[in-house]
Specification:
By secondary structure, the chain is α/β, with parallel strands linked by helices. The chain contains 19 helices and seven strands. The structure holds iron/sulfur cluster (SF4) (2 copies).
């Protein structure tokens, strides 16, 4: 008989480290105006923030609760942003590391629900999984569409020996025409630094981040296993990922599954090129910019300073910070599949709140480094009475290196 609580049982230690103090719902300081953006955007019932989800997880493990259709709201009402984990006071006395891995707990809740009662999982999430089975990616983009972004760029193709840098574009950018410009700009910037990246084109695999975050743990594990071999055989010496979700997945899950190639997100890579003097940002950008830390890049990978260093290197750019910034940042609203939850209404509410905080901080422009952040913040910005432009760091770096002579 299959164990319907397999994933939750595997994280019982972290579930039982929770003291039910409720700080993940109530903490409020100058730097942390609120912890859980979803709780803030809803009526605030307990199941929308970490403590309530953990109470449910315990109830399931102890048999005082059973899986019901209502559980889907608790399981999928979460951006997996990790702010609750960052703010939680339950930490290891020696290492000061958080003991309550709220992201892992919510992923486990989703995995067990999907495994035992997939019919209760909202249709939008199941559609992403059906698309993965049919098209090898969650966005139902045929393989031929994956290389449209690079038309005319004449990029070398992996696998081949000594291909150097492999630009890992990711399904989201490759299958969204509005984001193709970002990938082209990344190539332009890398070439300005003397690097001609290779790509996998139609053979680039889906990293499995979306599938894993929405609870398809077994599907994601199979994808990772298959993709590790393909990437190890690519002939590249390092992988530079354009998408924060891909970078987090490749650097952590793939590494654990045997990926031997070094992985970085493009922004820290550009910070290093600037530091080495291989990239020069010449053209000024006289705007006040607020940087939104993507959760995957910031809290999950610890990359906070390098994006700011890249922005500060652009002549004329003035950088401002929201109160909640760096490790305390508030999710853009799109994490953890939130654009599917309640048809994306909450995702937009959360994004609008973040944009208004940037405007209050004096920003003319909001900048991020993740396609999910850019798409959700852009959609939310268009609903503001005075829309604030939303850009990716690559947009600004590309404009700053452009040869206008
Ligand atoms: S997750 Fe942390 S902050 Fe939230 S109730 Fe548990 S111990 Fe308290
Ligand atoms: S991970 Fe983020 S959205 Fe989910 S419960 Fe924690 S703070 Fe709220």
């Amino acid at each position: 008989m299959t164990d319907s609580l397999k994933s939750l049982r595997r994280c019982a230690d972290t579930i039982y480290s929770c003291r039910s103090c409720g700080m993940c719902g109530n903490k409020m300081t100058a730097k942390v105006p609120y912890v859980c953006p979803l709780r803030e955007a809803t009526a605030g019932f307990d199941h929308f923030y970490a403590r309530g989800k953990i109470v449910i997880a315990r109830g399931l493990l102890e048999g005082s609760l059973e899986m019901t259709p209502d559980l889907a709201e608790a399981a999928y009402g979460c951006m997996l942003c990790g702010n609750c984990m960052t703010q939680c006071g339950a930490t290891d006395r020696t290492t000061a590391e958080p003991l309550v891995d709220t992201v892992r707990i919510v992923e486990a809740l989703r995995a067990d629900l999907l495994q035992s009662h997939s019919e209760w999982v909202p249709e939008g999430y199941r559609a992403l999984l059906s698309a993965t089975r049919q098209y090898d990616n969650p966005w139902a983009a045929p393989r031929s569409a994956r290389e449209k972004w690079c038309k005319g760029l004449d990029l070398p193709r992996a696998p081949h020996a000594d291909c150097g840098v492999l630009l890992f574009v990711g399904c989201t950018i490759a299958s969204t025409p509005a984001l193709h410009g970002q990938a082209r700009k990344a190539v332009h910037v890398l070439r300005a630094a003397g690097i001609n990246p290779a790509i996998m084109g139609r053979d680039e695999p889906c990293c499995a981040s979306v599938q894993r975050r929405i609870g398809a743990a077994d599907m994601a594990a199979d994808m990772v296993r298959n993709n590790v071999d393909q990437l190890n055989a690519s002939g590249c010496s390092e992988i530079v990922a354009l998408c924060a979700g891909c970078a987090n997945m490749l650097a952590n899950d793939y590494r654990a599954a045997g990926l031997k190639v070094r992985v970085r997100h493009i922004v820290p890579y550009l910070a290093e090129l600037l530091e080495q003097g291989r990239l020069e940002l010449r053209h000024p950008y006289a705007q006040t910019v607020c940087y939104h830390d993507p959760c995957h890049l910031g809290r999950h990978m610890g990359i906070f300073e390098q994006p700011r260093a890249v922005l500060r290197a652009i002549p004329g750019l003035r950088l401002v910070e929201r109160n909640a910034t760096g490790k305390n940042t508030l999710c853009c609203g799109a994490g953890g599949g939130m654009r599917v939850f309640e048809s994306g209404v909450r995702a937009l509410d959360i994004a609008r709140a973040g944009l208004l905080q940037a405007v209050q901080a004096g920003a003319d422009v909001m900048v991020s480094a993740c396609p999910f952040c850019e798409m959700n913040l852009t959609a939310a910005a268009q609903t503001l009475p005075e829309p604030i432009p939303v850009l990716d760091i690559i947009d600004l770096v590309c404009a700053a290196v452009e040869d206008r002579g």
